[in-house]
């Protein structure tokens, strides 16, 4: 992926809406997709593994409370930027509250934690790739294994649908329908990532 041409992705509004309205599956998907990214940001700010896990949990508690007020339609608003602001603030809160055994941050990490920038401490392209990979994992978990196999073999591996149909003992049209359904779900979740 050419890092120079990557645009800021947006989180699919339906995912945010589902999480915002208390949909457990939507919330779990949001945490599964963005949790590892928040953890990586906090670690890049120099926090130890256990501290990063705690800050990540505190971040998502704050997100759960503030999500109803987050406005994706606001000019320049991105979920990733908003999430980084919350994570950075939770890391700072943790540092202030932990005076007895403060988080030890090296010089570069301290600079990231103290920055007022809305940009997280990672490459945008890396975050986009991570989000897309996690969305695929979540989608795979919620898809019938045989359906996923038909999709993966034809759409990703480029196998002939007739060959896959023969191997799986289904009709060729079943393979086409399975691939189309998975692609439709995938597009729905990723449609706003690259405007």
TrEMBL record:
Pfam families: Sigma70_r2
The RNA polymerase sigma-70 region domain, residue ranges: 30-100
GO terms of biological process kind: DNA-templated transcription initiation
Domain of life: Bacteria
Matches recorded under InterPro entries: RNA_pol_sigma-70-like, RNA_pol_sigma-70_dom, RNA_pol_sigma70_r2, RNA_pol_sigma_r2, RNA_pol_sigma_r3/r4-like, WH-like_DNA-bd_sf
Single Gene Ontology MF annotation: sigma factor activity
Entry keywords, A to Z: DNA-binding, Sigma factor, Transcription, Transcription regulation
Record's keyword annotation contains Cytoplasm: no
Family: Belongs to the sigma-70 factor family. ECF subfamily.
Protein name, UniProt field: Transcriptional control
């Amino acid at each position: 992926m050419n890092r120079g041409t990557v645009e800021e992705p947006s989180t699919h509004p339906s995912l945010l809406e589902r999480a915002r309205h208390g949909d457990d599956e939507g919330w779990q998907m949001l945490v599964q997709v963005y949790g590892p990214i928040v953890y990586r940001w906090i670690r890049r700010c120099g926090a130890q593994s256990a501290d990063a896990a705690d800050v990540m949990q505190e971040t998502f508690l704050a997100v759960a409370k503030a999500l109803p007020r987050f406005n994706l339609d606001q000019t320049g608003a991105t979920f990733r930027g908003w999430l980084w602001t919350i994570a950075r603030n939770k890391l700072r809160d943790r540092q202030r509250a932990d005076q007895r055994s403060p988080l030890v941050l090296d010089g570069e990490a301290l600079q990231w934690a103290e920055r007022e920038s809305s940009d997280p401490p990672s490459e945008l392209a890396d975050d986009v790739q991570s989000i897309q990979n996690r969305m695929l994992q979540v989608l795979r978990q919620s898809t019938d294994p045989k359906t996923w196999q038909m999709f993966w073999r034809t759409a990703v591996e480029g196998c002939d649908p007739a060959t896959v149909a023969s191997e799986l003992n289904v009709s060729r049209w079943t393979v086409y329908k399975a691939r189309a359904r998975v692609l439709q779900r995938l597009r729905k979740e990723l449609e706003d990532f690259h405007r």
